[in-house]
């Protein structure tokens, strides 16, 4: 008897600029919902830079975003397989904010196809950093080769604003208790 919805929001740093409500069971995963919102909004704003977390990890999604000219920055799991195209910078652990730059690379990502790895033709930038306090590595992937490592991290850091916004929706507006399960009712509740 329980219904589950997925509410995905595009956030421009100040306000939500696009939101979509998903009620289908097939749309529980961020792997499906976030790309839908990104593809839809990128048609309106070709200059937008999209940042999203590791909920989106399909290499095919990264390829589609690049092919349509949509700029993005995301995190991928450390240890992901890639083929080095060229080294942009050997970070030598130089500080960027609270992190240290390990490497900044141009790469081709690998896909596992029936017990062997194949590498996609698309080239991406892989910025590998680590937290000097605990040694944890963070791998940032983007299709923007021309910007520097500081800009990659600066853009990704802005992603945290959406977490603050969702906290506001859940705690201040009590949106964790939805009184309607149809998309129009949820949208009305959000606008109210």
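^ Assign residues to that structure.
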């Amino acid at each position: 008897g329980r219904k589950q919805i997925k509410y995905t929001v595009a956030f421009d740093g100040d306000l939500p600029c696009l939101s979509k409500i998903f009620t289908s069971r097939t749309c529980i995963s961020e792997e499906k919902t976030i790309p839908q919102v990104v593809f839809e909004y990128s048609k309106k704003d070709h200059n937008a830079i999209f940042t999203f977390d590791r909920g989106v990890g399909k290499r095919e999604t990264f390829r589609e975003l690049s092919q349509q000219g949509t700029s993005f920055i995301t995190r991928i799991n450390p240890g992901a397989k890639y083929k080095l195209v060229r080294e942009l910078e050997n970070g030598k652990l130089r500080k960027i904010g609270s992190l240290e730059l390990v490497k900044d690379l141009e790469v081709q990502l690998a896909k596992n196809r029936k017990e062997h790895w194949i590498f996609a033709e698309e080239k991406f930038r892989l910025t590998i950093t680590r937290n000097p306090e605990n040694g944890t590595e963070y791998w940032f992937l983007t299709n923007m080769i021309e910007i520097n490592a500081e800009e990659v991290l600066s853009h990704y850091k802005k992603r945290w604003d959406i977490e603050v916004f969702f906290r506001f929706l859940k705690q201040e507006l009590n949106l964790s208790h939805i009184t309607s399960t149809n998309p129009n009712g949820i949208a009305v509740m959000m606008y109210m």
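Residues 30-44 form the longest helix (15 residues).
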